[in-house]
Amino acid sequence: MQHGPSIYGILFILALFAGLTWLGVRLLPKWHPVYAGKPVRYGYWLATILSIGILFCSRWLRTAGSLAGEGVRYASYAAYVWLFGLLFMLVVLLAGYAVRLLVRKFSRPQTGHLATEPAAGGVPVPGRLTRRQFLQGAVAVVPAVPLAVTAYGVIGGDTNIVVNRYTLAFPQLLPALDGYVIAQISDTHIGSFFGMDKLDRVLAMVKQEKPQLLTLTGDLVDDLDLLSPTMARLTAFHSELSHGIFYCWGNHEYFRDIGRIRQALYASPVTVLENRSQAIGNGLYLAGVDYPWGRNKAEQEAKRRDFFAQAVRTIPAEAFTVLLAHHPDFLDNAFAANVPLALAGHTHGGQVSVFGVSLLPVQYRYMRGLFRQHGSYGYVSAGTGHWMPLRIGCPAEVSLFTLQRGGS
């Protein structure tokens, strides 16, 4: 099953950024006359055309780990900074125009000249910046601020990874599992923006936390040229964990070549949980579910019910179960069945967040972080990587969960 971008999706992207560029070219000269010249107008269009060209070409120039791959990565950084900067810049400009209109509407007419600001004695000082000149300069650089913020979100968001640690109390936890540590990595999207150096770094972060097992909740590899070195690293890391590595399918495996990825995983010590469970020991069971593809919400819900039922079918009632899922809606199934802990991903936390609220147009009920219902916990990872390198207020993460006996 392949789910790639359609021709309609590509045409929509082209039309969207062409429209954003046209609006920018129209609005910038009205914002400040410094943007009124032909060089600015032509440069604006050229930057958009080059950026779109770079991103489309990067889909076929997957040479991660090579010098050419590094060049593609940094060129893609620049392209993303410009294209996302276009969007944020227009938001800022439109907000600025709204403020101007309000100021003009409610301010009273004033007399006098604001062109110069006399020094003591009433004589302007040659070479000194006047208040009006300062304000004009400040207004002129406002459109550059969104580009600076976007550059921070692209470059900083692609390099910063945090460790989030949670201690979760369960009254039903068996004494043998008290203090048990589970690590979660999700949505690495290994490829242009997540190479082997970053994978080595992430695995070192996990090793430092000394978990008993590692869970991978989908979307592992986007560039299949890196599948073999990825599996070599996971195979080597498996011996660092007392109970190994466990994996459930995401949606991007289907975008690439799930048959090839399946073959690589089954040839490794990584345990794939595809709508089934695995006994770990001391009453601990892991259950994993596939991605619930569906043509509509009802079909997807039916798939979730079926996959979940298959996954937990053979688990004893007295067991302590941890569910691994890529799609966060499986938290509903876990909560309804009183599964103590469910781990998911997929959303990337929205990647752009203000005061903890995602600005992503597509919203999920469980977007990011820890949720609790009736003594059960569900966690949605913000992702350890991403296929689109832009994160603001939502850093990539490695998640650690320490099970604790107690609570109510």
From TrEMBL:
It is an enzyme of class 3 (hydrolase). The keyword Acyltransferase does not apply. Residues 182-349 form the Calcineurin-like phosphoesterase domain. GO terms for biological process: lipid A biosynthetic process. The keyword Hydrolase applies. One of its GO terms (cellular component) is membrane. Its EC number is 3.1.4.53. Gene3D superfamilies: 3.60.21.10. InterPro entries: Calcineurin-like_PHP (IPR004843), Metallo-depent_PP-like (IPR029052), Metallophosphoesterase_sf (IPR051158). Keywords: Hydrolase, Membrane, Metal-binding, Transmembrane, Transmembrane helix. This is 3',5'-cyclic adenosine monophosphate phosphodieSPTERase CpdA. The gene is cpdA_2.
